[in-house]
Each structure stands twice: as C-alpha cells, then as structure tokens.
Write a structure and sequence with these properties.
The structure holds two protein chains of two kinds. In chain A, α1 (3-12) runs antiparallel to α2 and α3 packs antiparallel against α4. The longest helix of chain A is centred in the N-terminal third of the chain and has 22 residues, at 59-80. Chain A is α/β, with parallel strands linked by helices. Chain A has a five-stranded parallel sheet with strand order 2-1-3-4-5, with helices on both faces. Chain A is built from nine helices and five strands. Chain B is α/β, with parallel strands linked by helices. Chain B has one domain: TIM Barrel. Chain B contains 14 helices and 15 strands. Chain B has helices at residues 5-13, 34-43, 67-72, 148-158, 172-180, 182-191, 193-218, 241-262, 279-284, 303-310, 325-328, 331-345, 365-380, 384-390, and strands spanning 22-23, 32-33, 55-57, 62-63, 77-80, 88-89, 95-97, 103-106, 113-115, 162-165, 224-228, 266-270, 289-291, 315-320, 351-355. Chain B is globular and about 65 Å long. The N and C termini of chain B lie far apart (45 Å). Classes of the chains: A alpha/beta, B alpha/beta. The A-B interface holds A 14, 16, 55, 57-61, 63-64, 67, 97-103, 106, 123-125, 148-150, 152-153, 178-179, 181-183, 195-196 and B 33, 105, 107-109, 111-112, 114-117, 182-183, 186-187, 189-191, 233-240, 243, 322-324, 327, 360-362, 399-400.
Chain lengths: 209, 400
C-alpha cells in the first residue's frame, strides 16, 4: 500500500498512535505536504463524515478519527508553514448565551478542522456581544449551537445583534443543536442548518465554494 | 367499580386494558422548571402551590410538584426522591461537585447548572491501576435514603397511587462519560476497552450497592423503580449498537436484574434520543417500561409501529414532545397529538402518558394545563379520539 493510503486507512481506523508515524514516512519519502494533507488526511475525514451520515460510524469512531487527524497534523504543521497552503475558510463557533453544553459543538469543530477550515472556538455561554467582537476580526462563517429549547431565543438574539451592528452581510450563519430545525433556522434568519457534524461540513463548504 | 391508580397500573403492566390511561409527572427528568412553575402558580390561582423554591433536580432546576397540583392534574404516580448527598459546594463559582466528583456551574441567568467544561473531568488522567484510588461515592451513606421508608409506607397505606422509586441520578454510560470526560470515554469504548470495562464495572457495582440500600428501605412499598441513562442523540445512537451490546448492555442488565431481584417492582428505563435500533436489546435487559419515547426524533415518532412491534413485551411512558410540540402547538394541535399517542399506544394497556422531559419555561401555563385536561377529556369520552384524529391537526405534519 502506498504512503497516502496508509495515512487514510489509519485515520479511518482512528489509530492515533500510528498516524503521526505514517505522516512522517510520507514526508520522508518526499511526497508534497499539500498532497498528504488533501489526498490522505482531508479525504479520510470526508469519508468519516460519509460513514457517519450512513449510520456506520457513531460519535466514538468520529472522535477517534478526528484525534488521529490532529495527531497527524501536528507532524505536518511545521512543513505546511512554508508551502503557503491556506485554510479553506475561517469559522467562528460557540454555544449561545445561557447554554453551557459543548459536546456537539466540539464535534462540529473537529470535523470542520478536518475539512481544512480554521476554527475560532469561543466556547460555551457566549454572549451576542462576544460573537459580534469576533466577527469584527474577520471570518467567513459563524456556527451557533444550542442544546436546550430554553436557550434557542439566544440564537435569534445573537443574529439580531449581528444585524444591528451592520455585520450581517459579512458572514454566513449556520445553526445547529438538538432542538434546532431547518424551519427554525429559516425563521430566525440563519443562512444554513446542520443536523449533525458531518452535515455542518457540507453546509460550510457550500458557503465557501 | 372504579379502579384505583395502583390497580390500573397493574392492569396496564400486564398488557390489559386499564379503565383510564395512566398519567405521570413529577419524577426527575419529568417535572417542571422553577420559572414555569411560578407562572403556573399564578395561572392556577385556585390550586395551593408552595413548592416553587423546592428544587427536585439541581442541574435542571425543576421543582418537587405540590400535592395539590398532582391532584389537579390527575397524576397516578407519587415519586420518592433520594436525598442529595455527598455534594460539595464550590467556592470559586456558583456551582457544586456531585457525588461522582463531577463539577457543575450555574449559567449566568441561573436557569440551570451544567457540567463545567472549564474544569477537568475527575477521571481524566485515571488509569486501570489507580481507578480504585479515586474517592468513590459511599453507597451506604445513611443519609441518602433517610426518611424515604416513612414516606413510602405512608403513601402505601394511605393512598392508592402508584409509588415509584425515583432514580439515583446516574446510569452506567452517562456516569462514565461525565467522570472520564465525554470525548475520552467515547474513545475508551473502542480504543481502551479494558479501561472502559473497569470503569463501567466500578460504577455498576456502586449503583447496585445503592439500590440494595434503597430497596431495603422502600422495597415493600414501591411498585416501580426508575433508572436513567442516555443511549441516543437527536439523530442517531450515541454509540453503535455493536459497542452498546459489547460494552454497555451486560452492565446495564446486571444492574437492572439486581434491582428487580431486590423487590417486586416494574422497571422503567429512561433514555433520550433515537434508540430504535436497540429497543429489542432493552427488552432483553428486562426493562418493563421505556421512557420517554422521544417523539421528536426519527424512529421514535412512529408510535403506531413501536406499539405493533414491541407493545406486547414493553410498555411506553411519555411520547408527548417538549422540544417542539408543547412550546409551540396551539390547542387543536395539542389535542390531536394527545389523541394520536393515546390511540397508538394505549390499547391493551402498556402506556403511561406524560411529557417527554422536563417542562421548560418556554412552555406556556395554558399548554401545560391543557395537556393534562385533554388526557381527562379522552378518558371521559374515548370515542372522541377518532373524531379528533380525523381533523388532521398534526403539529409535526406541518413542521419539520
């Protein structure tokens, strides 16, 4: 099997012990780092997303793959700096005001990172003002998360605050989380809705291309 | 002759038609948020309600419902709630550390507490070798079930209600995820099965010991034991059915068999989410009743199918959605939904109608009261079910 296949398979298997070794071997063999990143690592995470959507992978498999990707990236990172490869977009993420749940959001962050995005994770219980400040520093997409039905109104008020600040045209907004529906996303003026982490990658990519 | 709630319960649990559909509210994961309770108190000004400050579940900030309210709503169940013990208050923030060492903090608006993601999970760095060194909860704490024997005995002798032993708030999977940290334990389940099994064993042993103490106190008086865990997410199982069967199912069955061996009780298991792929397994785990039948998720919304497929072996508790329906539905839509779930699930017994989860403060008092009144309305006139269903006023059919 060739170097790229080895990395691809190890990420799919979630074998984070072996991925860094495989990445190092590929670098040593002189394979261009951009090729390693795109054709093995990002490609593997895309397959993970597909398997999740198909119901073959669940949260544990997805986490193992994402952490394996991360372990591989840490080997690749020093070499990437010199290649001029840019992230495909910058995404701000956070759980909305009053909501301190972050498992879903973290999973979304990992999958987006695995797809080549740069992530600015503002954490949980993030106020509208904090989101606004982060947008002012520049980003392509904002992802808002909520687990509780009672914190859903914070999602709407965050979008309103962004509108009031005159920043709405500068950013695409994707919302998700247990009680969120496509209908609700539309109703509060979001640009997209993702029912899970794999879907979030698809929607985010559609806004970049 | 009119059957008592307890007689109705036994009839429904033997999958025969009870006189009325049983209705429940008031256990943890199944009560009313304090803010909704205050509004309800004003709305129902003829019902004496004093418990708005009496917190049932500190995390969710729900209330121990007043007896007068339970009577007003026609609730067939009375729940015993274990005492909140071995909890440490935090001094750095408004928060606490529960008996399993898991740190919680309040949201800024004090609406609820959630696991403090800024702190490390208590077993984050634990290994197989030092797992026993952790300061595990004392399952024999005399304070945990103090007063419950008297309460249970009094309810048993002086009322006809179904008496339920509310959960020690933990199940093997959720507790392991919280103690180890969600991400790490999810990965342990595949990448370090030896550690995962050891942790699950330790938790299961502790829970079994607690239930032994609990049933020593109240086993003679309760008809129902309530255990909680979470196996599903909004869109799928949290873990694959295969991992569930290999790692979780044996431990959960061990716990449930233990409880059923301690007292003559029916066992109700709580799991949120899309758990259709493992309902057959849940039946094999000797669960009698599944709660909450989260009708807002794929697979669990088809209650007609659930009843046909599993109804002669499993009873259902819940099915009235609190994520979308109760906060948003108008009276006609609420009526249709209540009729639909009674129609699908209540024939040959085996159904206890209830909201799927806690009633949040995004649900109006009007809809809370309407729900319980609708149940009574259909009790009085079951023939109204078909007429209502013919109106096609389904909330979910018009929203997605």
């Amino acid at each position: 099997m060739d170097y790229l296949d080895n990395i691809y398979e190890a990420i799919l298997d979630g074998d984070m012990g072996i991925v860094p070794t495989n990445v190092q071997s590929a670098i040593d063999a002189g394979i261009p780092v951009s090729k390693i990143l795109i054709e093995s690592m990002i490609a593997a995470m895309e397959e993970v997303g597909r398997l999740f959507q198909e119901g073959e992978y669940f949260v544990p498999e997805m986490l193992l793959a994402a952490h394996s990707m991360k372990a591989g990236l840490s080997v690749l990172q020093p070499h990437l700096v010199n290649t001029g490869i840019e992230p495909i977009g910058k995404i701000i993420l956070g759980s909305v005001d009053g909501d301190m749940h972050d498992i879903g959001k973290n999973l979304v962050a990992m999958m987006l990172e695995g797809a080549g995005f740069k992530i600015v994770d503002l954490g949980t219980d993030v106020s509208a003002a904090e989101f606004v400040e982060a947008i002012k520093e520049g980003a392509d997409i904002l992802g808002l998360s909520a687990l509780l039905t009672t914190t859903l109104p914070s999602m709407e008020s965050t979008i309103q605050a962004i509108e009031i600040e005159g920043l709405r045209e500068d950013i695409k907004i994707i919302v998700g989380g247990a009680p969120v529906t496509a209908e609700y996303a539309h109703q509060i003026g979001a640009d997209g809705y993702a029912k899970d982490a794999s879907q979030a990658v698809k929607v985010a990519k559609s806004f970049i291309n | 002759m009119t059957m008592t709630p307890r007689e109705n319960f036994f009839t429904a649990m033997s999958h025969q038609q009870p006189e009325r559909v049983l209705v429940d509210m008031g256990k943890h994961i199944g009560s009313i948020h304090k803010k909704a309770y205050v509004k309800l108190q004003q709305y129902l000004n003829d019902v004496p309600m004093e418990n708005a400050d009496k917190i049932l579940d500190r995390m969710a900030q729900t209330v121990v419902p007043d007896e007068a309210l339970l009577q007003r709503f026609g609730i067939d169940f009375r729940w015993l709630v274990p005492n909140w013990v071995q909890v440490k208050e935090r001094t750095d923030v408004d928060g606490y550390i529960d008996m399993w060492g898991v740190p919680y903090r309040a949201t800024a608006d004090k609406d609820h507490y959630a696991i403090d993601v800024l702190c490390d999970a208590p077993l984050k760095t634990a290994t197989l070798n030092n797992l026993d060194d952790f300061n595990w909860p004392d399952p024999y704490d005399p304070d945990q079930f103090k007063g419950l024997r008297e309460q249970a005995e009094s309810l048993y002798k002086n009322t006809d209600y179904v008496i339920g032993a509310d959960a020690i708030k933990a199940g093997p999977l959720m507790t392991a995820l919280q103690m180890r940290g969600y991400e790490q334990f999810f990965m342990d389940l595949i990448a370090d099965t030896e550690f995962a099994d050891a942790l699950l064993d330790k938790i299961t042993w502790t829970l079994k010991a607690m239930w032994t103490r609990y049933m020593e106190e109240v086993g003679a008086y309760v008809q129902l034991a309530y255990v909680t865990d979470d196996l599903g997410s909004q869109t799928s199982m949290l873990i694959s059915p295969k991992v569930f069967r290999n790692r979780l199912k044996p431990k959960m069955k061990e716990l449930y068999d233990h409880i059923k061996g301690l007292a003559d009780v029916k066992l109700m298991m709580h799991t949120d989410g899309a758990v259709l792929p493992v309902i057959e397994d849940i039946i094999e785990m000797n669960v009698d009743i599944i709660n909450p039948v989260q009708t807002s998720v794929q697979g669990m919304n088809n209650t007609q199918f659930l009843k046909q497929q599993f109804g002669n072996r499993l009873a259902f508790h819940g099915a009235i959605d609190v994520q979308h329906l109760m906060p948003n539905a108008n009276l006609n839509q609420l009526r249709w939904e209540v009729a639909k779930r009674i129609h699908d699930l209540s024939y040959n017994g085996g159904y206890i109608i209830a909201p799927c989860h806690n009633i949040g403060h995004d649900i109006s008092s009007q809809n809370i009261v309407a729900f319980f009144d609708l149940v009574k309305e259909f009790d009085t006139d079951p023939s109204a079910l078909d007429k209502v269903l013919a109106s096609k006023q389904s909330y979910f059919a018009n929203h997605n």
